Amino acid sequence: PQAASTRTDVRNCSADPPYLPSTATNTTARLAALRGAMRAHGVHAYIVPSTDAHMSEYIAERDSRLGWLTGFTGSAGTAVVTHDKAALWTDSRYWTQAERQMDCNWELQRTTWITSIGLWIMEAVPVGGNISLDPFLFSIDTWNSYSQALHGSGRTLLPIETNLVDQVWGDQRPPPASGEIYSLPAAFTGSSWQEKVAGIRLQMEQHVRRPTAVLLSGLEETAWLFNLRGDDIPYTPVFYSYTLLTNASISCATETWGYRGCHGCPWGGDAVPGHATPSLPLQEKLLEESYSPVMLAKAVKNAKEQEMLRAAHVRDAVAVIQYLLWLEKMVPQGQVDEFSGAQHVDMLRQAQEHSCGPSFQTISASG
């Protein structure tokens, strides 16, 4: 194996001049533009996470702010940019990938701890500096962790609702999703949306703290509750939305209902088009951030859902068996690699009834 120091597929920032592989992204202009926006807002450090405003596991290209800014396309990471430094924190799955994709504007921090990010910020930003972020991209728990990491340091954690990466990304940023929101057939659900809403309200009544409203920001929660689906995110049949469910009303806000049809939005509550989102509940009214009766209910599968799950696994098993037979025939001929294998098994699965595509990019084989 090549020694790490002579590898040509990763960057070498200590060489003179620095060596960058063809897979690295030139981020000089992007960083310069971001730093200009930071100065305009009086910001000394800006934190960019890898998630979207709904803490989704998979995100749309439009929300891939970390990837656009750094060149790094792994699914987990955090970037911090100051006036003269830039660093990325990610876990060991992605260290080699980061060294292939980032240019020498970036330091790679081989950890994900918020305490580590806080220490780096305190070293890079003088006392009195403002540390900013987009509050829509951070959970209350993560916000509290950053507050704790910087507590007593003389630096201020300052949320700015204008996302500075979006501002400098400008019209190069991919457009919002435009696919239709559609209703899932009753044959697949086992419960109507009315039954689900009634069940959630009963859980709210029986909860020890008797909440009168629940705000749903997880996209799969709204999709499950109303038996609706969409295609706003690759591999995930959801649509961008927030739902505020009280014991007497339902309000559902989505960025894109103003632009597309919604087949099956029959409840008597409000559907808010345009770019409206329910304002976050006042802190003193927030009972807890971890309680979601919808996630609890969604996790318990009814008889119809169990039947559908088993049937889906049988159909998938047929496709995998067909794939294994194909591999037995093709591999000895040297006519298959991981990519063509992935394409073939995707095709076999697509041929099965009710297939809507894979649930993540297919990992077909190794070697």
What structural keywords apply?
single chain, 367 residues, alpha/beta, Creatine Amidinohydrolase, Chain A, domain 1, 3 domains, six-stranded mixed β-sheet, four-stranded mixed β-sheet, 11 helices, 34% helix, flat
Explain this structure.
- With 367 residues, the protein is an alpha/beta fold.
- It has three domains: 27-172, Creatine Amidinohydrolase, Chain A, domain 1 (3-Layer(aba) Sandwich), CATH 3.40.350; 181-299, 3-Layer(aba) Sandwich (Creatine Amidinohydrolase, Chain A, domain 1), CATH 3.40.350.10; 303-351.
- 34% of the residues lie in helices and 12% in strands.
- It contains eleven helices and twelve strands.
- It has helices at 28-40, 65-70, 95-101, 114-124, 140-150, 164-169, 193-206, 219-225, 293-299, 303-330, 338-350, and strands at residues 45-49, 78-82, 86-89, 107-109, 130-133, 156-159, 182-183, 213-216, 228-229, 242-246, 250-253, 270-272.
- The strands form three sheets. The protein has a six-stranded mixed sheet, sandwiched between helices. A four-stranded mixed sheet has the order 8-10-11-12.
- A hairpin with a 3-residue loop joins strand 2 and strand 3 (86-89).
- The radius of gyration is 24 Å and the shape is flat.
- The relative contact order is 0.09.
- Mean pLDDT is 90; it is low at 272-281.
- This is XPP2 aminopeptidase.
- InterPro entries: Creatin/AminoP/Spt16_N, Creatinase/aminopeptidase-like, Creatinase_N, X-Pro_aminopeptidase_P.
- Keywords: Aminopeptidase, Hydrolase, Metal-binding, Protease.
- Pfam families: Creatinase_N (PF01321), Creatinase_N_2 (PF16189).
- Residues 30-162 form the Creatinase N-terminal domain.
